[in-house]
Write a structure and sequence with these properties.
By secondary structure, the protein is α+β, with helices and mostly antiparallel strands. It folds into three domains: 52-154, PAS domain (Beta-Lactamase, 2-Layer Sandwich), CATH 3.30.450; 186-293, Beta-Lactamase, CATH 3.30.450.20; 312-470, 2-Layer Sandwich (Alpha-Beta Plaits), CATH 3.30.70.270. Helices cover 48% and strands 25% of the residues. It has helices spanning 2-52, 73-78, 82-85, 99-110, 156-184, 204-210, 214-217, 228-244, 290-311, 321-338, 352-359, 361-377, 402-417, 446-462; strands at residues 56-62, 67-70, 115-123, 129-141, 144-154, 189-194, 199-202, 248-257, 261-273, 279-288, 319-320, 342-349, 384-389, 392-398, 433-439, 468-470. The strands form three sheets. The chain has a six-stranded mixed sheet with strand order 11-13-14-12-15-16, sandwiched between helices. Strands 2-1-5-4-3 form a five-stranded antiparallel sheet, with helices on both faces. A five-stranded antiparallel sheet has the order 7-6-10-9-8. The protein is rod-shaped.
């Protein structure tokens, strides 16, 4: 009984143990299935991730470079079906001229070097040339390298952008160089200053004008190369441009060159602004106008000489009749305006025709010339003498009465009597003049005034020559 009972008991224990084992196996099988499901899910998610990452192709290759796996993005990017690429060599996608570089890169990777961001051209199925950024790492099986896996990122657009940027930068540098060459070879000086007037940029001509070296000029304030008067002028111009925003052209001032002293210049001033439109300084052109100033001075001198020649009688070197009428009109206007007296003398050389006929025109001209000098010596600064015509002279005496004019007339006659003319060798001839004199009457017409003086001069001749005839003394 006991043996049978024991056997039964053992059988029950074994049955319980077996049931427990079955339960454990059932749980293990369930967990294994869950693990497999989890693994499949994970693999699906990983594969889905690989297949849907934009612009990236996942590649696995063997030791010979044959493709063993490639993601589906290949079709969208390169135009190949996934099945077409399996067992194709990776070099089939790379242009022949780049095979050597690709081979060297692959060999380095298989030897253990890290291959990251190697850019190689790739030819799509359509023949279109693309650029990919490759990164690879080795694959091991049982500790042995069996191939490589990695990513290929389409960087064609980025390369195009980079190329465009490089080309744009090259064009920018070219334009900058061209503009710099233009600026440096300008005959005019180009400058830029900050809002305080400190030089921040200038061309070679500016260096030549100022006579300083580049490193000395950089940062110089405009007040360092102008005097006080010109500094005020330039500051006012800068201030006006700053306040109005309007450019100034043709501003004349003088800068002080290190070697040449003051240089007359003409400049322009414009306001410089930053990207936000805020004023940051001034720029402009400076033109050395030394030659122009000299030319202007020469022109003024020439005009002065021409003007003088146009109003000066060549023979006597006193004013001519054309200038006489213009000046008399001004003196009459002044006399009427201020109530000042004005006296006018008309001189005629006595017996000049006889002298001219006897000794010739050359001697006659000589006598007229000398008479002109005698008259000039007898006049004050406000007075003026004119060759009225032939052998007649007029003398204008501003702020002078008839009585005072008689004194001047007598002085001229006295001085002329001292002049000895020698028309022929060993002979001296002395000349006299008859003078008419009158004082201007307020509001009298100029023509009437001259006629009065002319009549008085003829009266002096009738009185016996070498005399003065005025309304005070007839």
């Amino acid at each position: 009984m006991d043996d049978q009972s024991k056997t039964k008991h053992e059988l029950i224990q074994e049955l319980v143990s077996l049931r427990k084992r079955i339960a454990e196996l059932s749980q293990y099988e369930s967990e294994h299935k869950q693990a497999e499901e989890s693994l499949r899910e994970s693999e699906y998610q990983y594969k889905n991730l690989i297949e849907n990452i934009p612009d990236i192709i996942f590649i696995t290759i063997d030791l010979e470079g044959k493709i063993t796996f490639i993601s589906k993005r290949t079709k969208e990017i390169l135009g190949y079906e996934n099945e077409e690429t399996i067992n194709m060599s990776i070099f089939n996608f790379i242009p022949e001229e780049d095979h050597q570089r690709a081979m060297e890169t692959l060999q380095k990777g298989m030897k253990g070097e890290k291959i990251k961001h190697v850019q190689l051209p790739v030819t799509a199925k359509s023949g279109k040339k693309l650029f990919f950024d490759f990164s690879f790492s080795r694959i091991y099986k049982d500790g042995v390298v069996i191939g490589a896996q990695g990513t290929a990122v389409d960087v064609t657009e980025r390369k195009q952008v980079e190329k465009a940027l490089r080309e744009n930068e090259a064009r920018h540098r070219e334009r900058e160089e061209r503009y710099r060459n233009i600026i440096d070879n300008m005959e005019e000086a180009y400058y830029e200053v900050d809002l305080k007037g400190n030089l921040t940029f200038f061309n070679a001509t500016a260096v030549t004008n100022l006579g300083y070296t580049d490193n000395v000029m950089m940062g110089m304030n405009f007040r360092q190369y102008v005097d006080e008067e010109n500094a005020s002028k330039v500051f006012e111009a800068y201030n006006k441009v700053f306040l109005t925003g309007e450019s100034i052209k043709g501003l004349d001032w003088e800068l002080i060159s290190k070697g040449s002293g003051k240089i007359p210049i003409e400049s322009s001033i414009s306001l410089m602004r930053d990207a936000q439109g805020n004023p940051i300084g001034f720029r402009g052109i400076i033109r050395d106008i030394t030659d122009r100033k000299r030319a202007e001075d020469a022109l003024r001198e020439s005009e002065h000489r021409y003007q003088k020649m146009s109003i000066i009688d060549d023979l006597t070197q006193i004013y001519n009749s054309r200038h006489f009428h213009a000046q008399l009109e001004r003196e009459i206007e002044r006399s009427n305006r201020y109530g000042q007296p004005l006296a006018l003398l008309l001189l005629d050389i006595d017996k000049f025709k006889a002298f001219n006929d006897t000794y010739g025109h050359v001697e006659g001209d000589n006598m007229l010339s000398r008479l002109g000098q005698v008259v000039k010596r007898c006049l004050r600064d406000p007075d003026s003498a004119y060759r009225y015509g032939g052998d007649e002279f007029t003398i204008m005496l501003p702020m002078t009465t008839s009585k005072e004019g008689i004194v001047t007339a007598k002085r001229i006659q006295t001085e002329l009597r001292k002049e000895a003319f020698s028309p022929v060798l060993g002979k001296e001839v002395y000349m006299t003049v008859s003078i008419g004199l009158a004082q201007y009457k307020p509001k009298e017409e100029m023509k009437a005034f001259v006629q009065r003086v002319d009549q008085l001069m003829y009266q002096a001749k009738k009185n016996g020559k070498d005399s003065v005839c005025s309304e005070l003394r007839r």
